[in-house]
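Hi W., the guanosine-5'-triphosphate complex you wanted:
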Amino acid sequence: MDVVGKKSIMDQIKELEREISQTKYNKATQHHIGLVKAKIARLKEKQLSRSKGGPKGEGYSVKKSGDATVILIGFPSVGKSTLLNSLTAAKSTVAAYEFTTLTVIPGTMEWKGARIQLLDVPGIVQGAAVGRGRGREVLGVAMSADMVLLMVDALHPEHADILVKEVEDYNLRLNQRKPDVKIIKTSKGGLDIGTTVKMTKLPIETAKSILREMSIVNAQVVIREDITADQLIDIIENNKKYIPAVTVLNKMDLLPQDALEAVRRGISADICISADQRVNLTELKDLIYNRLQFIRVYTKEAGKKADMNEPIIMLEGTTIKDICNKLHKDFVTKFKFARIWGSSKFPGQIFKNMGYELKDGDVIEIHVR
Ligand SMILES: Nc1nc2c(ncn2[C@@H]2O[C@H](COP(=O)(O)OP(=O)(O)OP(=O)(O)O)[C@@H](O)[C@H]2O)c(=O)[nH]1
Ligand SMILES: [Mg+2]
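Structure:
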């Protein structure tokens, strides 16, 4: 019964996806396409929640450590474990057969003063998001990472699109910002949509139909960006994780220079490397470091000067609460207030709320009970 149900959802999704791929996108069809996309989103949500069953404790648990966590995602045998071993002191088993790695192997890479945790995980394949292989567990780990490193074999560029699709089916959004759209559900009055920009990709009528298709019939909606139907659907579902990603083409040693460059361009990879010949690894470390957008925050004690030689390295978007968590396990519960110099309106401004976002170069003084 369940299997039949699951199959038919998958078939329905496939059918609708085929319909979209066969429909030419233009002004006349965009409304219809928007609606079909909303239908697909609903079905995928259903599929994902069904496939989440299974015994408890099945997922991987990894302790995050260091200043940021990067997960290595790729098909089996692309060289994830080889890369982990080349960048860190970890010793993850490397072999020429598929599915060598069966669990999460962490390693730490130190670069420019930051400690970056790398997670080597089992390979994922098509259908991973709905539970093929170890896909669900792997993608679950990605949900709590700070960056995804998508690894593609230079001899298998066709895997790149499948990989991105699996990751997106698991509600991750790579290199995208969360669109500035607010939806406040109301009890009556229909749909009231306000926009602050010209909508060139999503007519208001289509937006309304999508909202209704996804069971929002009464709401106040404010759209402050020229969004697409997909972006609206993401906002309505409200379960997406927006995460930076780099795409790495591995095994560059197996192709001549010009063929390699064509492959790289074809999949828009950020960099070509050879994990086992150790080519371009310094460039890769820089790329990861830069894409993570670290900020430096300095601490001071009351009545003393800040120690500008020992920054705390944090990710962009860090709040006072994040800093407290990093400094001491009791700071959050004992927090009284913090004073901030730098990004605050005036030097030494007092914050009693831990939600304030710090900026690069800020100095913070934390007061606890
Ligand atoms: N030519 C070449 N071979 C590589 C490179 N990196 C890894 N390999 C080889 O590719 C094979 C698979 O490498 P692994 O590191 O085990 O791959 P993996 O992605 O961890 O594989 P799973 O754990 O099975 O998912 C091994 O035989 C490696 O020696 C590379 O840069 N060039
Ligand atoms: Mg491996």
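The chain has three domains: 2-54+179-237, 68-175+241-292, 295-368.

W.
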